[in-house]
Design goal:
This is Histidine-specific methyltransferase SAM-dependent domain-containing protein. InterPro entries: EgtD, EgtD_Methyltrsf_superfamily, MeTrfase_dom, MeTrfase_EgtD-like, SAM-dependent_MTases_sf. One of its GO terms (molecular function) is methyltransferase activity. Keywords: Methyltransferase, Transferase. The structure is a single chain. By secondary structure, the protein is an alpha/beta fold. It contains ten helices and 14 strands. Strands 1-5-4-3-6-7-14-13 form an eight-stranded mixed beta sheet, with helices on both faces. Helix 2 runs antiparallel to helix 9. It is globular, with a radius of gyration of 20 Å.
Length: 347
């Protein structure tokens, strides 16, 4: 797969654009996942497939809802402690952002880092990714910016992680930035494997230069808290999270010839204290038969499709998980209310 290098033209030669590398899963992956998930009991759909263009747009709206504290709290931590983080990460870093979305939070790091060597945004939503990375390249014209379209949680990607170094120079350190508590979408066994694989990749990928420091992960984690606050965050009054959840059915209709009536399903999100996670479901409002990808599926009233888990952690729990993955917790930052945390984990 080639890297489409459309980087840093000189003055008068058009806009600065990010390079692009496409490692997205093959197209039939969505069809296979839908057929497998809708045939299962209980029924499930992978949360990865929320993020088509419309899903990405809706998620950006979710982050602006008053009930949804994670984004503004994490941004607050980055704004408050970004300079300290930058000092700890050191000069010449290549920042690799997983699930980069609109690439907003990373700017709070880039603005404080000393002479960053490069940025790689990794996201599954191709158009959203390219637009965000092009904006970043235009705003940071001296930075080597690469948009890498991939599912950063997909086993195939994790089994053969391939993130190139900056084209212009070797980095002083490679930093994996994983904000937004997306790690909470993985169950504990998957989270352990995820951290272990990235830790091994960071150790293999560097240091390559004499002055390069060991790589690490800067990971955002949503902490356990009052269940009422969690419930409100996933059931906003404006109904944006509900629309985001239901868009998964609309995507099946658009891309797989589905016959889902979104009005025949309801959004449900709740906190399970025993598992320490928020679950999102789509609930059939009535008995019905729907078609998707050439198959028919019968739903009973009240039957659900489980679309997402979001695990919540404690500070000691994350440190223990990181240690089991072979990573050392060097620094932790939290907000005054203890809602959210960022961990610097060294490989």
């Amino acid at each position: 797969m080639s890297r489409d290098a459309t980087t840093a033209p000189g003055p008068g030669h058009g806009p600065v654009r990010a390079s692009f590398l496409d490692l997205a899963p093959r197209e039939e992956g969505f069809r296979e996942a839908v057929l497998r998930g809708l045939s299962a009991k209980p029924r499930t759909l992978p949360a990865t497939f929320f993020y088509d263009a419309e899903g990405s747009r809706l998620f950006d709206l979710i982050t602006a809802q008053p009930e949804y504290y994670p984004t503004r709290t994490e941004i607050g931590i980055l704004a408050e402690s970004g300079a300290e983080m930058a000092d700890l990460l050191g000069p010449g870093c290549q920042v690799i952002e997983l699930g980069s979305g609109s690439s907003v939070k990373v700017r709070l790091l880039l603005d404080r880092l000393e002479d960053p060597a490069g940025y790689v945004g990794i996201d599954i939503s191709r158009a959203h990714l390219r637009a965000a990375c092009d904006r970043l390249a235009a705003d940071y014209p001296e930075l080597d910016v690469l948009a890498l379209c991939a599912d950063c949680l997909h086993p195939e990607f994790l089994a053969g992680i391939a993130v190139p170094p900056p084209a212009s120079r070797l980095p002083g350190r490679r930093v994996v930035f994983f904000p937004g508590s997306t790690i909470g979408n993985l169950d504990p066994v998957e989270a352990l494997a995820f951290l272990s694989l990235w830790g091994r990749w960071l150790r293999r990928a560097g240091p390559r230069a004499a002055d390069e420091r060991p790589g690490g992960l800067l990971v955002g984690v949503d902490l356990r808290k009052d269940p009422a606050r969690l419930h409100a965050a996933y059931n906003d009054a404006a109904g944006v999270t509900a629309a985001f959840n239901l868009n998964l059915l609309a995507r099946i209709n658009r891309e797989l010839g589905g016959s889902f009536d979104p009005d025949a399903f309801a959004h449900r999100a709740f906190y399970d204290p025993e598992r320490g996670r928020v679950e999102m479901h789509l609930v059939s409002r009535r008995d019905q038969i729907v078609r998707a990808a050439g198959r028919s599926f019968a739903f009973q009233a009240g039957e659900t499709i489980h679309t997402e888990n979001s695990y919540k952690y404690t500070l000691p729990g994350v440190a223990a998980l990181a240690a089991r993955a072979g990573l050392r917790t060097e620094r932790t930052w939290t907000d005054p209310d203890g809602l959210f945390a960022l961990f610097w984990l060294v490989a």
